[in-house]
Amino acid sequence: MEKGEWDNHTSPVEFILLGMGNVPSLQTPLFLLSLIIYLVTMAANILIVLLVVADRHLHTPMYFFLGNLSSLETCYSSTILSRLLASFLTGDSTISVHGCMAQFYFFGYFLVSECYLLAMMSYDRYLAICQPLLYASLMTWKVSLQLAAASWLVGFFTSTVVTSFVSRLKFCGLKVIDHFFCDFTPLLEVACSDTNAARLVTFTLAVFNLVFPFLSNLASYVCIIAAILRIPSSVGRQKAFSTCSSHLIVVTVFYGTLIIVYLMPRTPQLRQLNKVFSFFYTVLTPLVNPLIYSLRNREVREALKKQTALKTFVQNVF
């Protein structure tokens, strides 16, 4: 970056994030709510990772992907909530240009990686239910590692390209971002240089990295549901569906809110509603996901009970 690129005459040194609205009386309640959500999210996702590592019964591709998802969502939550908590606590809603670009980069990185990781998990469930005899040979540990690594690498590449284009834009005049974090559309709204290249590149990559994983999830679950409906016994159908119901709920919630946020027009009347849905998929989804998996998944519940019982036994002995 050349000296003077962020000069005050061409670009602001810092932005102002409007957040959820400038209501001083709500700052303390929102801080407490966000802090509770952040602590529970971190604890729940870290617990899932520890259970997957510690319990040998969870050393399967399905739970390997789940551990990756929980790891990703601890980073995802920290990218958004840490800055939001600091804003609520100090009352300072400013963020430096470099800080904004860093937040935008990591948000895009984890978002795209999660899209692909959810698609990999759907593919894993498709093989387990639709190709059970070939599952062990098709979904080996080597394949699982390659799929997980590909999810992280595609997120890294996509976010690097998009952020490089956005960081070249000039921001002048009003430097107020009408959002609670640095997202693509709100950033473009305060840019005063030509945004066509950034929009074109981002749209092209979004088609590949958001739509393709979504269609992959959709195709996997169409095949899965068709296969489950062909099972003659109701007990068999229930058992088969229970292995993928948690993931289906997570995918539905994630993509449902994501589609609403990015297809909803950012008119003045709908901006607050847009923020609410953004809050849901960036903040609440990482909180809900581990709860869904732990409450609806028998193996995770049993692993948690086993680790709790072991800890109690060790404490009683020593």
From TrEMBL:
Q: Where would you find this protein in the cell? A: Cell membrane
| Topological relation to the membrane, as annotated | Multi-pass membrane protein
Which keywords does the record carry? Cell membrane, G-protein coupled receptor, Membrane, Olfaction, Receptor, Sensory transduction, Transducer, Transmembrane, Transmembrane helix
Classification from the root reads: Eukaryota, Metazoa, Chordata, Craniata, Vertebrata
Q: Which residues cross the membrane?
A: 30-53, 65-84, 104-123, 143-166, 203-229, 241-264, 276-295
Q: What is this protein called?
A: Olfactory receptor
Highest taxon of the lineage: Eukaryota
Residue ranges annotated for the G-protein coupled receptors family 1 profile domain, each copy included: 44-293
Q: Name one Pfam family in it.
A: 7tm_4
Q: Which family does it belong to?
A: Belongs to the G-protein coupled receptor 1 family.
Q: Do the record's keywords include Transcription regulation? A: no
Q: SUPFAM superfamilies annotated for this entry?
A: Family A G protein-coupled receptor-like (SSF81321)
Q: Which CDD domains match?
A: 7tmA_OR11A-like
